[in-house]
Structure formats: C-alpha cells, structure tokens
# Entry
Amino acid sequence: MINPNDVEILVFDLDGTILQSEKANFEAIKKALFELGWNVTITEEDLSKHLGETSERAYKGILPPDKIPMWEELRKKVREQYVPTISNYGKAFPGVIETLKILKKRSYKLALYTNSSVQYFNVAVSFLGIKKYFDHTECIQENSLTKIELVRKIIDKFPNLGVAVIGDRIHDIEAAKENNALSIGILYGYGKDEPQKQILQ
# Structure
C-alpha cells in the first residue's frame, strides 16, 4: 500500500466527484424519451444508481426490458441534449474548484478520467472550466480503455510518482486497488457509501 505522504499525482473521477450531473443527465434523458415517443418513466433515483457506469450499463440499467435492445438509440438522442442540459443544470460540488486550485499550487500532478463519452466529457470539462488544472484528461471512449486500464496508463505516463485515485463509485476503488494506488472514496457522490464498503473488503 502506498504511503499517503508519497502521493504526487491525484487521479480524479468526474461525475459524482467533481461534477454534480444528476439533474443534467435526468433532464437530457427525459427530453430524449419524449422526442423518441417512448412511454417510459424514469425517476432521478433510478438514474442515480447508474451514474458513473459505462453508458451501455447505465442505459440498459434504467430501461424496461422491451426497450433495452434500443439503448443506443436513446444514447444518441441524449447526446444531442448535453450542451443545453449541462449548461442549465450542471455544477461543481461545493469547494471542488477551489481544492483543484490549491492542489495545483502545491505542485501536485492532477489527472481526470471518466466512464463517459468524448462528447459528454468535453462539454462537462469546458463548462466547468477545469481543463487548465489537469496534466492529463481522458475518458474511456477515446481509446476503449476501462477505468483500471486508464489509471495504469496515467501511472505509465508519470512513472515513479505515488498515485491516489479519487472517486465516488466502486469502479474507482477497484481501479486504485488493481494498480497498487491509494484509494480516496468520496462519500458525497452518487455511490454514497459504496467506496467505504469496497475499501473495507
């Protein structure tokens, strides 16, 4: 296990860690379902269970069985809503931007990774204005990598530096464990106490 005092690079998850995106995603899906003419009702609670997962798992998780084969059709329609919904409903969690500024001033290397699509990632990062704080940013769609593989790529990019992975879901804790990195679980995010349970296993 890496010593916290040796950490020099911090790898941040996006949704549920930096970006409050639940309302934005919910509004995008609601509008997309209406435009598709699908008689499907999804609550914000239904959606929150799947935020932070890959888009395929998330869409299949919220759709009724008869619509699951058409999940890609919904995803395509939802992506058309990213700019207006993130602009209208997205926001950073309290204190996060200030924390990034402080960490950067203290000479930490910062990386940002996520399960999202390139389009979503770019819109969210641009909206938040956080690109300047990060030494590396990447989402899984760019190179078809898993979160575990993305963390490994970041470690290879910055060799011989102690790494900590910061996120709110089990996938972030697993990504840290599989790469012998320190795990920092965010309990205010969409995973709720999921990181704590995984770390204690």
Q: What stands out?
A: The longest helix spans residues 22-36. Strands lie at 7-13, 19-20, 91-92, 109-114, 136-139, 162-167, 182-185. The chain is about 50% helix and 15% strand.
